[in-house]
Design a protein that fits this description.
It is a single chain. By secondary structure, this protein is mainly alpha-helical. The chain has one domain (about 1-95). The protein contains 4 helices and 2 strands, in the order H-E-H-E-H-H. The protein has helices at about 1-15, 35-50, 65-70, 85-95; strands at about 25, 55-60. Strand 1 (about 25), helix 2 and strand 2 form a beta-alpha-beta unit. About 0% of the residues are buried.
Length: about 100
Amino acid sequence: MLVKRLTILNSIYSHAELSTPPFIIDSPRQQDIDSDNYHNMLNILISNTPDDVQLIIAAVQNNFIDSIKGNFEEINLESTPLTAEEYELANFLILHS
């Protein structure tokens, strides 16, 4: 799935007349992938994303992330962006709009 998305991203980047939107990957390790394959996947993701495209990865801290984070800007969330009530309202509005 990631390779498919990278292919689409690179096509958009190569052929779009307007700017390319950010490429966002949320929790890339959610499929219980082992550490070596996780590191390989992140390396492929980072090396195949065009330099002019903003890459946002929501990842859990680990040794590999620690080793590469000096090359990136890190955003830490101290709490959830929405309260439970705000999430319920936003979810309702999205589903019923």
